[in-house]
Amino acid sequence: MRFELRVLRPDARATTLYLDASSVAEATGQARQQGYSILRVKSAKTLANMATSDARVFPLGLFSQELLMLLEAGLSVVESIETLKEKEGKAQTHHVLAQLVTFLCEGQSLSQALQNFPAVFPPLYIATVRASEKTGDLPEALTRYVAYQMQLDVVRKKIVSAAIYPLLLAGVGGLVIVFLLSYVVPRFSRIFEDLGGDIPFASQLLINWGNLVHDHGWTLLIGLLVVTVLAVFWLLQPGTRRWIFDRLATVPAIGERMRLYQLARFYRTVGMLLRGGMSIMPALQMTGDLLQGPLRHRLSESASQIREGLQISSAMHSCGLTTAVSLRMLRVGERTGRMGEMMERIASYYDAEIARWVDWFVRLFEPLLMVFIGLVIGAIVVMMYFPIFELAGSIQ
After folding, report:
1. Are residues 28 and 60 both part of a single domain?
2. Are residues 197 and 272 located together in one domain of the fold?
């Protein structure tokens, strides 16, 4: 449980602490061990809920860019955040900025103030700010973080934009098929019944389907909606996404590209942290969540080998976290002492390779999808008209 404590520092200045403890007594004990005098203690559950709500609407990227511009203009951190607070119109964002100003005025550093909102500011962002506080170059750290987010967004947008047309095509094709099966086929089935005689098996299936839709249309519609809602709920579960991710990772071509995508994010993040002044071990520990499944375990093994004195390139290569290109680039980074820059170059190389593969896959998948949808629609139409063709032949 999280507690909010209003305390007096040893220099008699009041400040606010947030501590995780199982009880009020444990929280106050932790504060006293740190040399604070307790003024007030209360549960921070309400504040945590507010932070979680703020995380959905707080524009972290825009905040970083605007803060960077104000700092480069010569304003201090407190003045910059106060300026952003005064011009902010959204209540939740204004609340976060106001709280940041309060914490800064109480003597907390920017990284300490950001830690009070873990749902708004991710650990990577806080670590970047904390590293810049040691070097005294916050604008440079914000510049790297903004560039980092922009690079991630570029790759993500390429994948999303490439998926839009196939999804739109599949959606329209699906609607056409549903329209044929729910509206056109039931009406044709009545015509077939009036014709009498021998009807081909495929056409008889359409007649049966048409009768089913005609007699139980609303039941089928409600059942379809229920199945759709359950399917969406199932897909939104974290366990489901992990299961789908693990299954896709076993597909040879797709699995390799998913591995490169994870490694690209991993290398770019570690490179940014290294360039910000962080050492390799904390950077690896902080970025472990970017890797999924076996890659995360391989990273743990690699970190253990690096801790034992093995070179970064050798440890990552032995654990399967490199390719032929990235291995050579890591060795160059070790020789030149520019490991952070080299890791970002590796990520850019992976991003370009992923973008080329996505473009090739979409160019291949789109015509195959069009052919499949055309065959399904064509088969339905042929089955609807086949009895009519046979009737015309018998008349001749």
Report:
1. no
2. yes
CA angle, 258 then 293 then 355, to 5°: 10
Residue range 319-344: mean pLDDT, rounded: 89
Q: Which tokens go with 348?
A: 């850019």
Query: Within 10 A of 118 (CB to CB), how many other CB atoms are there?
Result: 16
In a domain? residue 247: yes
Do 326 and 263 share a domain, yes or no? yes
pTM of the full structure: 0.63
- For residue 15, the enclosing domain spans 1-43
Do 375 and 391 share a domain, yes or no? Answer: yes
Q: Are 6 and 55 part of one and the same domain?
A: no
CA dihedral sign of residues 144, 145, 147, 148: positive
Closest CA to 355 of 248, 291, 266, 264: 264
Q: Is 346 exposed, middle or buried (0-12, 13-18, 19+ CB in 10 A)?
A: buried
Q: Which amino acid is at 34?
A: Q
Flag whether 127 is in a domain.
Answer: no
- Please tell me which residue, 34 or 364, carries the higher pLDDT value: 364
Query: 82 and 55 in one domain?
Result: yes
**Which CATH number is 272's domain given?**
1.20.81.30
Q: Could you give the CA distance from residue 363 to residue 369 in angstroms, rounded to a whole number?
A: 11
Lowest mean pLDDT among 12-26, 161-175, 337-351: 12-26
pLDDT above 50 (res 71): yes
Rounded mean pLDDT, 379-393: 71
Give the model's confidence band at 12: pLDDT under 50 very low, under 70 low, under 90 confident, else very high. low
Q: What is the pLDDT of residue 49?
A: 42
Task: Tell me: do 7 and 91 sit in the same domain.
Answer: no
Determine the Cα–Cα distance for residues 166 and 367; give it in Å rounded to an integer: 9
> What pLDDT was estimated at residue 196?
58
Question: Residues 231-250: pLDDT tens digits?
Answer: 888 888 877 777 777 777 77
Give the model's pLDDT for residue 197. 56
Q: Could you tell me if 22 and 59 lie in one domain? A: no
Q: Directed axis angle between helix 324-336 and helix 339-395, to 10°?
A: 160
Q: Tell me, what's the pLDDT at 146?
A: 82
Q: Is residue 115 part of a domain?
A: yes
Tokens found for residue 18 = 């947030």
